[in-house]
Amino acid sequence: MTLVRDALPDDLEAVMALAEPFVTSFTIDKSVFNKSYLQLLASPNAHLSVAELESKVIGYVLGFEHLTFYANGHVGWVEEIYVNETARMLGVGKLLMQHFEQWCATRECKLIALATRRAASFYQALEYVDSAVYFRKLL
């Protein structure tokens, strides 16, 4: 049975191992990752949870909550979600998203948004709708 729980400091190595194949535009710097990981765990506006199967971390979701004008309050943003290839199509991603959605609900978020390049059908199956185009500029 898959367990989804808040990430712990001891999950750092497992989450980094999952994040490495997820990254396409950058290379993970381990020293920066270690520092960022601990800062994210301490941030009240960040949510990092992991999916665990047989005591092994097989996925994670990283998201944030912030205030907006357009939504008249708080919104959630999924920054990253990744499930190990061997555990895909087993409902792990759905469980991670549900965990994030519950966290957002406790913060009275009006909506959850995200950007995706490769997983539109996954989010549509979870009742997310296409709403905007995503732009970025590297600094």
Question: Please, could you describe this protein's structure?
Answer:
It is built from four helices and five strands. It is of the alpha+beta class and 139 residues long. The chain has one domain: Gcn5-related N-acetyltransferase (GNAT) (Aminopeptidase, 3-Layer(aba) Sandwich), CATH 3.40.630.30. Strand 4, helix 3 (92-106) and strand 5 (112-114) form a beta-alpha-beta unit. It is globular, with a radius of gyration of 15 Å. It starts with a strand and ends in a 14-residue tail after the last helix.
Topology, please?
Elements: E1 3-6, H1 12-22, H2 30-42, E2 46-53, E3 56-68, E4 73-83, H3 92-106, E5 112-114, H4 120-125
Parallel strand pairs: 4-5
Antiparallel strand pairs: 1-2, 2-3, 3-4
Strand order of the largest sheet: 1-2-3-4-5
The biggest sheet, with number of strands, parallel, antiparallel or mixed sense and barrel status, is: 5 strands, mixed
- What oligomeric state best describes the polypeptide chains here? single chain
From the alpha-carbon coordinates, what is the Rg to the nearest angstrom? 15 Å
CATH class: Alpha Beta
Number of DSSP E strands: 5
- The CATH topology annotation reads as Aminopeptidase
Helical content class: 25-40%
Give the overall shape: globular
Beta-strand portion reads 25-35%
Mean pLDDT, as a whole number?
A: 94
The named CATH superfamily = Gcn5-related N-acetyltransferase (GNAT)
Count of individual domains: 1
Poorly predicted ranges (pLDDT <50, ≥5 residues)?
A: none
CATH architecture: 3-Layer(aba) Sandwich
- The N- to C-terminal Cα distance equals 42 Å
Helix/strand-derived class? alpha+beta
Order of helix and strand elements from N to C terminus:
EHHEEEHEH
- Supply the number of helical segments: 4
